[in-house]
Amino acid sequence: MSTLRAGLVGLGAMGRNHARVLAGLDGVDLVGVMDPAGDPHGAARGAQVVATLPELLALGLDYAVVACPTALHEEVGLALAAHGVCALIEKPLAHSPQAARGLVDAFERAGLVAGVGHIERFNPALQSLRRRLEAGELGELFQVVTRRQGPFPHRIADVGVVKDLATHDIDLTAWVTGQAYTSVSARTLTKSGRPHEDMVMVTGDLADGTLVSHLVNWLSPLKERFTAVTGERGCFVADTLTADLTFHANGAVATEWEAIAAFRGVSEGDMIRFATPKREPLLVEHETFRDAVAGKDGKDGTGIVTLAEGLRTVEVADAVLEAARGRGVVRLPGARRPAPETVTGARPFA
Fold this sequence. Notes:
By secondary structure, this protein is α/β, with parallel strands linked by helices. It has 9 helices and 15 strands. 30% of the residues lie in helices and 27% in strands. A hairpin with a 4-residue loop joins strand 12 (234-239) and strand 13.
């Protein structure tokens, strides 16, 4: 593999993690980092630090990682596409569906590899869960429940908890199930004194009828990253903080009571905790994107998160905020139109 020249835009908390991984990534040379504030933490690992995007582009990049504030993703991404530079853009793809759609179009027109940094797709627990669901180990799916909560991140100022955190759960739910969202309803709270929401509760439907529920906040001292998928054969529980995956099987209890002998209820069965290799998700994400830029398949069959997928996640997040404002049900683009009486107060998402 010939060495790829990589650049990084942004040296915030996530940007510093990207710099660490890029600096040690086989087949990649981190040649430059752009941040107007410089590099006070010494995170550039010897790469040249510049203050503007034109200076970074002048270094001659094969690809760039975009880890600046979400509000700047559109501007930076369009500039990279115009200069023929592939891009891995941190989630969410953009601050609005319109901006995300513009990025999709720009990179498609340029014929460039581009992806979105939805890192949860590279968590070992969720990768194992997805493979098991694809193999039919759970049978018919009934429900996906996620909880993502923790302390307030003072580094986030340009978006609320829906676009900062809930986009993780929106993307991973659609990805592990292979199903698109068709409708959402939501409630939000704003308690930190900022203009953006700090807590959201979401309920929704997937295309196959699976119910979804997301609880997301940055108001809790408890840090939790929980995903449970329930189906006809039991329940998978993934903890992405520890990368553990557990299966709780439905039990079968024999009975001679004729009145209930024919009733097949759910009872507690065996519990299995799976042993899986636990590589750092960010490293796997970077290896996958590097291989995509080099024209090679991602490792373990895991491809990059495409901009089109990132756009869909932004659309769902926008629908969540619309539903919270209107206190009703919002249908997603391409979803079957509901009966009029099922829509309560919110205008259709378009």
